[in-house]
Amino acid sequence: MKNFINLLRKDFLLLIRDFWGVVLLFLMPWALVLMMTYLQDSTFRSINENRVPLYLLNNDGDSLGNMVSRHLLTSNIFEVSTTSGGRVLSAGELEEAVSRGDYLIGVIIPEHATERLREKVRLGIEKAFNGDNVSHADDNDGNGNSLSHVDNSDGTRADALPEIRILIDPKAKQSFRTSLIRAVRENALRVQNRLLLGEITRQVNRIVPIPVNLDMDTDELITIRESYAQSNGTDIIPDSTQHNVPAWSMFAIFFIVISLAGNMIGERETGCFNRLMTMPFSFRLYILSKVSVYLCVCMLQLALMILTGMYAIPLLGLPVLKLGHSLFALIAMSVSSSLAAIGYGLAIGSIARTNQQASVFGAVSVVILAAIGGVWIPTFIMPRFMQTISNASPLNWGLNGFHEIFVRDAGFSDILPYVSASLLFFILTLAISCRSNRKRRM
After folding, report:
1. pLDDT tens-digit series, residues 63-105
2. Closest-CA residue to 337 (of 266, 426, 406, 267)
3. Helix, strand and coil in the chain, % to nearest 5
4. Bridge partners (DSSP) listed for residue 167
5. Helix, strand or coil for residue 377?
């Protein structure tokens, strides 16, 4: 036990000998977490809240036009304009503006659109109650008077169905076009349903002695509630903080491979390692000492990152980090991820011959593992092939484990696959380190 304590003291002194190096080991990841969380949050907001410029020309001014206008104005998808340069554009001017790219989409609701729809509904309901074929309702007004030659001031037939024009810039995304058409169609159907109920009510009251009122608000019959899918009824929702804090924390703890491998190579170059091996110290005890010291460093790094997410990041106006409710799962994931990083550092320190080899290979390999593991770019927006490759990165295991805890409020059983993978990686790299040491001493 005394030998182990002496080894711990030696490794601790080696670590703090480069004081500013230790400071940077904590300060740089801390600054990186703050900066990347802020930048990515701004990016996500700009993507989610970026609205499509749309010009709305509402010539109707009645139920149909007003409902479509109200829906588009309150939409989170479109930035609706009703004037340009302080005046209302005509249909021809709007088409030119869309063709120039001033607006991605133009919507034209014609005059008397609601009145035409109302008249169509009235004629259809009257024919239905009179026992006539509804399909012939557009041939006369119910009194035998033909409507085929009655025109409106805009040149359209009075009995023509209202036609809402949608002008689309060719570069507009299909998703926006689909969203707009769906919104217009849904609002038109709402107005049509209300007119149908109102006209049916009027016709029924002409027949039955007791007045009835079927004119109800159909919008209130069905409600739609949107929420994130959660397990066990939790109320944790994903945000940029819960992604970036664990992502860059994993990147930070794996960067200790440079310091750990550098210390091991330095001990070999100065002859300190050979002197230790001539004393009653085993290589296993030597490794255990380094694992213990650097495990403390990694846990302190993770604690700093988590506290940053809980208290510092909200000061920037970003979401607070929510830890979930399983402290044991959080500790288990932190320890297993830290051991994976330490094992990787021990393997590099045992294989590399010079400090330069360890520094270059360690830094580059960690960056590559971070890139494919979802630290730089979330895996869900990667191509399918890269999503498969990301499963081979130990940083991805840790990141997914923390996501399960922070986002889904997972317990230990839920993160067990990630903990197991990290521990197996630690055992494998530890075996590589021991084997490399035996070859070197032979």
Report:
1. 778 887 887 777 666 778 888 888 888 888 888 888 887 887 8
2. 426
3. 70, 5, 25
4. 106
5. coil
